[in-house]
Known about the structure:
Aminopeptidase, 8-stranded mixed β-sheet, 4 helices, 33% strand, globular, binds coenzyme A
Amino acid sequence: MSAAQGFVPEYPIRTERLLLRPIVTSDAEAMLAYKSDPEAVRYVPYGPLTRDEVADRIATRWSTTRFDKEGDAVCLAVEEAATGRLVGDVVLFWRSENDREGEVGYILDPAAAGRGYATEAVGALLDLGFHGLGLHRVIARIDERNTASVGVVERLGFRREARFVEGSWFKGEWTTLLILALLDREWRSPIIEE
Length: 194
Ligand SMILES: CC(C)(COP(=O)(O)OP(=O)(O)OC[C@H]1O[C@@H](n2cnc3c(N)ncnc32)[C@H](O)[C@@H]1OP(=O)(O)O)[C@@H](O)C(=O)NCCC(=O)NCCS
């Protein structure tokens, strides 16, 4: 399968307990709760964010809902199906068209942690990446101190491929970065329910 034509996912994407859907303006308040939390954003490339920054990002880079070209990133709100509550958000970056490579990112409201929601949501993102966009390989780049995040992708079958010792100057310190990866043929447990 080729990723060359791009891909327009159908929303919402449903999993057993969650909905993944485009981020909308009214998500700002719920998102601010964790995007402004220094602990929650410690290992993500932004923040802590202010109310205005959250609103601005929702209106711009977090509003992409389709993959048209390499470099596009689709961010989706993760909603608890039973309550309609926003519990976090996930992102799939289309890193390379030639190599059919993507990258996942994810964050949960700390109040929703410990229930497997991140694993479930990223699983749906992998279905989208491998089965929808036709990716061959998906990676995760994780600060090695972020053991909760490593746990998410390892539960989904990612392999540890590389460890770059102090390979990244990030938020004012040298950080050791792990690269974990999963190939399309290694991903064989679709979570999306039709
Ligand atoms: C990374 C992050 C999403 C992980 O959250 P998490 O709650 O640990 O991950 P999950 O939602 O998949 O839940 C897994 C936990 O729930 C437990 N769990 C309970 N029910 C479960 C189920 N049905 N399925 C899977 N796990 C379940 C697991 O045992 C695990 O707990 P453990 O780590 O104590 O073993 C969260 O720590 C976070 O948002 N961090 C800040 C943002 C961040 O760093 N993002 C990653 C950047 S690389």
